[in-house]
Amino acid sequence: MQRSVEERHFSTHDGESLFYRRWPVASGTPRGAILLFHRGHEHGGRIAHLVDELDLPDFEIYAWDARGHGQSPGERGYSPSFAASVRDVQTFLDHLGAEHGVDPETTAVIAQSVGAVVVSTWAHDYAPRIRALVLASPAFEVRLYVPFARPGLRLLHKYRGKFFVQSYVKSHLLTHDLARRASFDADPLITRAISVNILLEMHDAAKRVVQDARAIGIPTQLLISGADFVVNQRPQHEFFVNLGTPVKERHVFPRFFHDTLGESGREEAVGQARRFLLERFAEPLDRPDLADAHRAGYTRDEADRLASPLPMLSARGLFWAGYRANLRLGGLLSDGIALGHRTGFDSGSTLDYVYRNQPNGTGALGRALDRTYLDAIGWRGIRQRKVHVEELIRRALQRLAATGQPIRMLDIAAGHGRYVLEALAAEPVRPESILLRDFSPINVEAGQRLIADKGLAAIANFVQADAFDPDRIAGIRPRPTLGIVSGLYELFPDNALVRRSLGGLATAIEPGGYLVYTGQPWHPQLEMIARALTSHRQGQAWVMRRRTQAEMDQLVADAGFRKLEQRIDEWGIFTVSLAVREEPGREKHGHEARGHEERGPDGHAEGSSG
Question: 275-303 pLDDT, tens per residue?
């Protein structure tokens, strides 16, 4: 018997109203929810056949039409960015929770082709606590049969801006199923074009996610079409090997074309998916424990490799020696590079310079060099992080005001405090007090001047303090209702330090108060930073240990905060999250009874952020 279907809409972060279908359970309480994500060029109606074929009557099922597809609005095949489409997944899940009571922990996802790349990127970047993933023929690498197609498209995109690429894919390349071919050819909602920005950005995101799939701890089943003429299988296998979850399966169907879940004989693939989902729902939610990732884990291994010296006469050793020499020469002309060498490229002074984004140097050449320095992808990500920090600070202020709570702000490592003070510029909600802290006297002095310049001396204060002293943080009075820690934990690899700091914040912040925190799950310039840039720690090399988003979220959850929302830049480098302080005893930790004993290092730790 076919299940009844409802047609609904939800609003995205930028105001688009996207279409989705809902198949509720016939009666009783749903056991969980299954979310379906269609392949590129298609829409949710093209995978609606799975609702009955999966034969999961106790589960609610949902299928959207991605923006620019099917019955959703927007130019056909277009999205403002691939990151916007990934964020739409999180917005969709948030909507389903608010509208239909869908709990992420009893939710699984089935996604195909382009939809599988969107979902894989979401799983990597947002670390959702969902039950399982089933990915069918993910389009990690689309076959472009024209030589040098991607470099050519990048060049055209740079000079022409937005344009569209017509798909070469015909129905006979998708499936052996004649009925599916005919319905594809006759479907007026099929989108033949894809915008060039999405084609290129999806390729970049897929490459990043495949390489860093160790960050994904969600149980995952991968279904691969062995006779796929649309996408390459090599990165699919690489993704599977790299996956960080201990619960993973790979099934290859040798005769299948690209439309794995719409192929002739798809009963085998659908049956594997059904079995996998039922097995996952029969077990409690499980995730790898990442509390000790600083002691043993792939990001620890990565950081150790970067901290290891290179043979001086090796090719790489000579390359980075030359790079450092050129950077020192650049510091003679560029004010930004000179400041980095003087105070550390990770210092609050450097970050404030990057925030201001005004090139300065000796003559036109110095200013041009400084412009190039400021336009490095890492610094562009830092500036976008500032935008997101300010956005979530304002969101927290509005939440506090809406519930009538006092607004008392605390930033434990504020750098110069620019992002905190500028977040208030266009915000009608004003705090009772702002306490900014930093370990560096240089940052404290600069921050005090900035407070005076902004005319906030009546409510704001800047003091020197250690962000890793939990007792000093916990003893702050009056108790803050909004805590902020931006760019700090990324500088320190040791989770014991971070847990001490978060423990102090959890004690200080009143239940119902909020925490804005940042993360750095990935960075494309890790080796350059480690081999060429110096830190604020007496000129030592700036070697960073990445924390996956799942690791950072677990540390925050274990301290007693519940994550509410997240932002991430379009390159996948920096995240900013907003969490609420739970009532003591009601926390929903990432790992409830871990039996983990922690001994942190003695003494104080210096840190500047911002």
Answer: 999 999 999 998 889 999 999 999 999 99
Quickly tell me which residue has 């909507």 as its tokens: 95
Q: Which residues contact 339 (CB under 8 A, 6 or more apart)?
A: 349, 350, 353
Q: Is the pLDDT assigned to residue 50 strictly greater than 70?
A: yes
How confident is the model over 91-96, as a mean pLDDT? 98
Looking at residue 243, its amino acid is L
User: CA 344 to CA 591: how far, in whole Å?
Assistant: 36
Domain edges within the chain: 6-282, 290-610
**125: which 2 tokens?**
């970047």
User: Is the whole-model pTM more than 0.70?
Assistant: yes
Q: Which fold has domain 6-282?
A: Rossmann fold (3.40.50)
> Tokens standing for 431?
């705090």
Residue 286 has what pLDDT? 83
Instruction: List beta partners, residue 367.
Output: none
Query: What is the Cβ-side half-sphere exposure of residue 113, based on CA atoms within 13 angstroms?
Result: 23
Q: In this structure, what token pair is assigned to residue 233? A: 């299988």
In Å, how far from its chain's centre is CA 211?
Answer: 15
pLDDT tens-digit readout, 350-401: 999 999 999 999 999 999 999 999 999 999 999 999 999 999 999 999 999 9
Here the tokens at position 249 are: 């399966």
Query: How many residues are there in the chain?
Result: 610
The answer regarding whether domain 290-610 maps to CATH 3.40.1190.20 reads no
User: What Rg, from alpha-carbon coordinates, does the chain have?
Assistant: 25
